[in-house]
Amino acid sequence: MIHPSAIIEEGASIGEDVVVGPFSIIHGNVTLGDGSVVDSHCVLGHTEPGLAPAPLIVGPDARIRSHSLLYGGSEIGSGLQTGHRVTIREGSSIGESLRVGTLSDLQGSCSIGNYVRFHSNVHISQASTVGDYVWIFPYVVLTNDPHPPSDGFLTGVTVEEFAVIATMSIILPGLTVGRDSLVGAHSMVNRDVRPGAVVAGTPAKDRGDASAIELRDGSGPAYPWRRHFHRGYPDDVVAQWKAEFGS
Amino acid sequence: MIHPSAIIEEGASIGEDVVVGPFSIIHGNVTLGDGSVVDSHCVLGHTEPGLAPAPLIVGPDARIRSHSLLYGGSEIGSGLQTGHRVTIREGSSIGESLRVGTLSDLQGSCSIGNYVRFHSNVHISQASTVGDYVWIFPYVVLTNDPHPPSDGFLTGVTVEEFAVIATMSIILPGLTVGRDSLVGAHSMVNRDVRPGAVVAGTPAKDRGDASAIELRDGSGPAYPWRRHFHRGYPDDVVAQWKAEFGS
Amino acid sequence: MIHPSAIIEEGASIGEDVVVGPFSIIHGNVTLGDGSVVDSHCVLGHTEPGLAPAPLIVGPDARIRSHSLLYGGSEIGSGLQTGHRVTIREGSSIGESLRVGTLSDLQGSCSIGNYVRFHSNVHISQASTVGDYVWIFPYVVLTNDPHPPSDGFLTGVTVEEFAVIATMSIILPGLTVGRDSLVGAHSMVNRDVRPGAVVAGTPAKDRGDASAIELRDGSGPAYPWRRHFHRGYPDDVVAQWKAEFGS
User: Are B225 and C147 within 8 A, CB to CB?
Assistant: First the structure.
């Protein structure tokens, strides 16, 4: 299951039933859980020259697609799924079942909850905190430097549970995007987003409650999305959501 | 012409005079036309684990640059040219002479016409329809989900013939960008763009007719661009354009 | 120090104490300075089929991270540092100590000064001119075509010394971003930015002098940033900056 052209360094701990594709490299500081599948041209456990390798722990059933790169020094829960050309740097603390799309770049030193969904080409700066069940769509950037370039002033963004940030929006440093809120596409957010709000524009303005947005088929509110969107979540979690909304 | 480090799986159909660079992989479900050149570190015919491989058909004279990835399950006309690190996913129906720049990501299940030009870092969502001779510039996203995340509501964008979408603009789901229109840079388009219009802003507003924009040298209207821009198109097509505008 | 799977073409000039990682390719037209470290899956000296290879000269102490690609036909000063998946095309004239982040794409035929900092996912079009000590943040695009697509009208952007362009902004073709100025995040710049100004919005408006922005700890102005930010610059340069501001 390990392609003969792949390089598995001595010391790497590879679980049962793991697949590693051609031209991939698993460094000696990596622990890769059972049932994981790593495509071709990947690097797991990258360490900068001159630094001591730090452990990279990837839970079971990971699916790491081609040309992706994970640094040493992070711990990632079970069920990771990456797209292609994904970068996850050191110091990332990542919960279960993260899905992170093609070209996305997690700059490290961040905290990511469970069942988080990053679509393609998302940029998560250092010092970001992302809660459980958050959705972030393509070309979104979470920033961290209030006076770029500055030193010692980095303040990451906090995105709370169930929040959604739509395509090509940025969140300025140190802000909080509240629980169940929605940031509209192509927005520049320069103040905190209150829980349950929808904001949009440059700069983004409060447009009311996200729960006022109706699904196109007239079946009810589009937000909080867990009212109607259940694909990919565990049965017990979905049961809880259904109970919450009486559906 | 096939580098010894490249992996050509049994079953792959490789045309005459094909070049495949080092560390590239051509899976067994691939048909690659005569005269094609594939750089290093590419993957053609990717299939997700557990799925049956679907054919990837790439027409003759393809030029696929390094680190690019094409899934199985698409059909691509002759003369494809990709930049580096391009992704083309399954279910893509692509006409002749597509040029798609570095880092661009076609998410699959889309229909792309002939002589389409995607510049670098363009994101084409599933269910998009792009007509012949369209130009899309860097960091443009065609979206598809009116209430992200939603299920069963995906509605792709339609971009009609000769339309131009400038840098870092997004088009909201289900909209049509009309024939010969121009979307200005850094715009958020939230309604249909009428044929021949120029729109710009967040949200984008109708600013009149694109044909009112003059070339800087005073030689005439800049749009429709086929009045003056002919590089890379077939002679008979250019002759038709010249006749159309009496030049 | 050269991994056995790496391909070093005949004619390549590799300095002392150079490291080249697995599955990387150094073409015969490359001169790579002493003490350089090239990660895995890189390509140095790429030449398009049918063209004569032009020299790629990379100064000493380069640090080129994985999956990066440098074309032949450029000259790059000492101390280059790239992130992962960086592209630098032909005709680039690059000074000393460029740092360019993951996924950034320099399209070539550009002039880049000394000690320039491009963060991740920056797009530098052909014909751009970037002065010494400039900072450009993620998802910024310098454009070059006033009437896309056009031919013979390309006019690049000029970014003067010490200027800062924040995340997800674009600069329209032919404009100058003045010395010591600041372009706010998510802006669309459609006129020249005067030296020392801060501009922001879509389109960007002049918001006064950047020097009026205070650091959050009350220690003084945030701009020009060289008043307080010195990390990574040579001692003699920093001494000069300190003298300039009497600190």
Answer: yes
Q: Is C143 an interface residue toward B (CB < 8 Å)?
A: yes
- Quote the minimal CA–CA distance from A226 to chain C in Å: 30
User: What whole-number distance in Å separates Cα of residue A213 and Cα of residue B225?
Assistant: 39
Tell me: the pLDDT tens digits for A211-236? 999 998 888 999 999 999 999 999 99
B143 vs A contacts (CB less than 8 Å): 137, 167, 185
CATH class of the A7-244 domain in this structure: mainly beta
**Distance (Å, rounded) from C-alpha C116 to C-alpha C94?**
9
Fold topology of C7-124: UDP N-Acetylglucosamine Acyltransferase; domain 1 (2.160.10)
CB contact under 8 A, A172 and C185: yes
Q: A167 to chain B: which residues are within 8 Å by CB?
A: 141, 143, 170
Residue B212 is given by DSSP the state G
**pLDDT, tens digit, for every residue of C146-195?**
999 998 778 999 999 999 999 999 999 999 999 999 999 999 999 999 99
Give me the residue spans of the domains in chain C.
Answer: 7-124
Smallest Cβ–Cβ distance between B216 and the set C67, C151, C153 belongs to: C153
pTM of the model: 0.98
DSSP structure string for chain C: -B-TTSEE-TT-EE-TT-EE-TT-EE-TTEEE-TT-EE-TT-EEEE--TTSPP--EEE-TT-EE-TT-EEESSEEE-TT-EE-TT-EE-TTEEE-TT-EE-TT-EE-SSEEE-SS-EE-TT-EE-TT-EE-TT-EE-TT-EE---SSSS-SS-----EE-TT-EE-TT-EE-TT-EE-TT-EEPTT-EE-SPBPTTEEEEETTEEEEEEGGGPBPTTSSSB--SGGGT--TTS-HHHHHHHHHHTT-
**Contact A172/C at CB under 8 A:** yes
Q: How confident is the model at residue A5 (pLDDT cuts 50, 70, 90)?
A: very high
Contact pairs from chain B to chain C, CB under 8 Å: 92
